[in-house]
Amino acid sequence: MTMTPVRNMTPRRPGAAGTTGRGNSDFTALAQRVQSLGLMRRRYGYYWTKLIGLPLAVVATIVAFILIGDTWWQLITAVVFGILFAQVAFLGHDAAHRQIFVSGKANDWASLVIGNLFVGMSYGWWRHKHTRHHANPNKQGADPDIELPVIAVTPDRVERVRNPMLKWVMSHQGWFFFPILPLEGLSLHASSVRRVLARDRVERRWAEIVFLGVRLIGFVVLAFLVLSPGSPSPSSVCSWGVFGFYMGITFAPNHKGMAVVPHETKLDFLHRQVLTSRNVRGSRLLDIAMGGLNFQIEHHLFPSMPRPHLRQASRIVAAYCRERGVPYTSVSLWRSYAAVVRYINRVGLGERDPFECPLVAQRRTQ
């Protein structure tokens, strides 16, 4: 099924769903349909398999790392570590969205242990940032995910830059986007450490500090014990790079190149989540590789829906949106990357609102 991208849709007349309170009742009807099909029920067998299997895979890779010893073959284990940590991070993401357990406290502790101890990323820092993103995806001044330090995803970000070198980088940012993704892993670790050591109030600060310390310091110590001097660096860099690149290529297709909503514009929940999100079509293997985040529209509409139900939900949501004339974007993986690169290139060159939402344009003219 091929869906039409947001930018090619003609907006509905004033008073249609999306510009009035009817949009909220539209979502209520959709939610009731999804609930009646049992798509919000827990999947304990699925998640316990991952909760046991992924940590065991990490432990097995650590054992392999020790047994292999001081050799360049360790670059292979570094790649495996990077992939495993990304898969574990997806599991932590599910727990943070209350997909695994009924108890909020159980989900919080699962996310904290998974994120801090296994991935080396502060759960508290990520939760604060991610909650703001879900509330206002792609909304200027509200979504932290569109305020990136180097890559500009909104025209006003380019206009604020005064440094000539950074300006030049942004004007060519489509070429640099994928090459700089490996640095994302290091950035996530650094942001996490700054968060837990900050003077601001941090919930469960000492638990976060202990888990992060064991993960980050422990792996460095292990590398120096197993490898000869000079060898740990390439292995660590490779692991961080694979993890960062994997996370980057998973999250980039979700919202980049979709409608950017001006700060003063208000949209109902259904349109706010659907218009700013993009699904990536593919097989069940892609579902595993992307941690279910290829169904970004359904995830944003139903954040606590267990990952195994997203594929079935996508068919229901797509049909529902089609019935009501709500633009629903679903493309192949490669087309999603092409759209991202094309979009950030056009933004970097100073083009205003290259992918403006039609409903936003309609609201401006009223």
How would you characterize the overall build of this protein?
- There is one protein chain.
- The protein has 366 residues and is mostly helical.
- It has one domain.
- The protein has 17 helices and two strands.
- A two-stranded parallel sheet has the order 1-2.
- The longest helix has 25 residues, at 44-68.
- The two termini are 34 Å apart.
- The model is unreliable at 1-20 and 362-366 (pLDDT under 50).
Short description:
Helices cover 64% and strands 2% of the residues.
Relevant terms:
disordered N terminus; mainly alpha; 64% helix; 17 helices; 366 residues; single chain
| Low-pLDDT residue intervals, each spanning 5 or more residues | 1-20, 362-366
User: End-to-end span in angstroms?
Assistant: 34 Å
Note the main sheet.
2 strands, parallel
Strand residue percentage: under 5%
Shape: globular
Structural class: mainly alpha
Helix proportion: 55-70%
Q: What's the gyration radius in Å?
A: 21 Å
Instruction: Give the overall pLDDT as a whole number.
Output: 86
What's the number of extended β-strand segments?
A: 2
Number of domains: 1
Helices and strands in order, then pairings?
Layout: H1 22-36, H2 44-68, H3 74-96, H4 104-119, H5 123-135, H6 155-160, H7 164-171, H8 173-180, H9 183-197, H10 205-226, H11 232-255, H12 269-275, E1 279-281, H13 284-289, H14 296-301, H15 310-324, E2 330-332, H16 333-348, H17 358-365
Parallel strand pairs: 1-2
Helix pairs in contact: 2-3, 3-4, 3-11, 4-10, 5-9, 7-16, 8-16, 9-10, 9-11, 11-16
